[in-house]
Please model this.
Amino acid sequence: MREDDTLACVIDFANRSYRDSADQDYIMARQAYRMQFDSQFRWNSLQAVEKYLKAILLYNDRSTIGISHNLVEALKSVI
Model:
């Protein structure tokens, strides 16, 4: 497989697995906030942030292995 093909596969995976799902979590978080559903707002917000950070890492050819659900580690890896 060529490097361009591999990169396209990684980007497609990041879009489907993380970005698209994060977009949905973000929309749900906004709706929960407007409806004053605090715990649902916090949960969906955290989910969205985690998935966006992992997508950013993959877009920049960085590994997400070992990050699990640790937002601090994910953010450190992005920065």
